Amino acid sequence: MNKARAELNNYRQSPRKVRLVADAVRGKKVEEALTNLSFIPKRSALPLQKLLASALANAKNLSIPTENLIVKKITVDTGATLYRRRPRSKGMANPIRKRTSHVSVILAEK
Question: Whole-angstrom Cα distance, residue 69 to residue 90?
Answer without folding.
Answer: 58
